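so my prof wants the structure for this chain in the tokens format not the other one, which i didnt know existed until like an hour ago. anyway here's the sequence
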Amino acid sequence: MLNVDLNNFKVASSGTARDFNRRIILNLVRKHQPVSQADLMRLSGFQRSTVSVITGQLIETGWLRVGALGQLPRGRKPTYLHLNENRAGIFGIDIRVQKTRYALANLEGRFLVSESIPTPASPGEFVDQIGGHIRALIKAHPQLSYEGIGVSLPGRVDLSSQKFAFAPNLHWSAVDLKALLEQKTGLPVELENAANACALSEYWFGRQFEGIHDLFAVTVSEGIGVGMILNGQLVRGITGLAGEFGHVSLSDDGPRCACGNTGCWEVFASNSAAVRYYAELQPRGRGRKKSGPVTFENILQLAEQGDLKALAALEKMAEFLGRGIAMLITGLAPEAIVIVGEVTRVWDRVGPIVNRVVKERSTTHASARILTSGLVEQPRLRGIIALVLQKYFGAPTTA
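here's what i got, hopefully its the right format
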């Protein structure tokens, strides 16, 4: 049960109710399109007049478009409705330590353009470069109405100041990235942690999680992040820092983490940890390739070729990945956990180890389905686009 906070509440107006009904219809069309008004009546429980008024307004304002006529043996032929995919353009930006990917998506979340650049060394350089790319895309696609920019970050953002609060792997100074991007592009900007973006991606676009309301996304890359959806709501905490399980210490004797702590989960179970394990298995002086340092991509390729040292490094990584996931299941008991990252390429090798460790270390009756990200392309980008779309499809705030 959700309690009403009597010290901080707003009374819902009649406009809120209309907005809520409008979003119900929008979501039903999004999920079931092509769909007729009769279908919408059945799915929503609204009266015919209510559905007719709402769909008429949504067609008039460009959110819906009229499709083909349906075929019935007798009676009036139904008119099918679709989301107007050209109604809105949304930019998504996924910042990672080495590479930043940006995309332009339509109202259905389909990528129209997707490109990448090396991640600049400073926020100022980043804003200058990415701002130029966004302005060029706006000029190239004048038919769209641009609704905003979503930015996925390898760290946490303070909800009150919208500044970096915690991004140890990126090494950027704490700046108001939201204000800088808005000034550069003229579009509203939403910032979100990468793991939260992945959780949103699976919740919005992942068919394998339909009907699930408690979902965690564990992102495995240079570090480890956890995005949490509980009771259908993204959990950020009062300051936006909730979910930093990657920086929970598993061992006081472990390696030092970029956050300053020792033995954090991510120093044992991240891509960087696997690279370290592989180097430790090499004879002294042979930890580097002639072409440069060994990368996680190199390890994956070697593992796929049957290299025993690469496989051993991934197995050790999997052991610690399982330990951290067992902590999540014991402490918060989600329905499902989705693993996002390059490691899923070798999940046939890694997954059984993770599941074994979770089973061994889960002392309660809590259990969770542990799955890899499905066919959703670029989950961070998809999720950050979903964050912008929430303004139109999510439940409205009271006014």
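also thought this was worth mentioning. The chain has three domains: 14-83, 88-200+380-393, 209-375.
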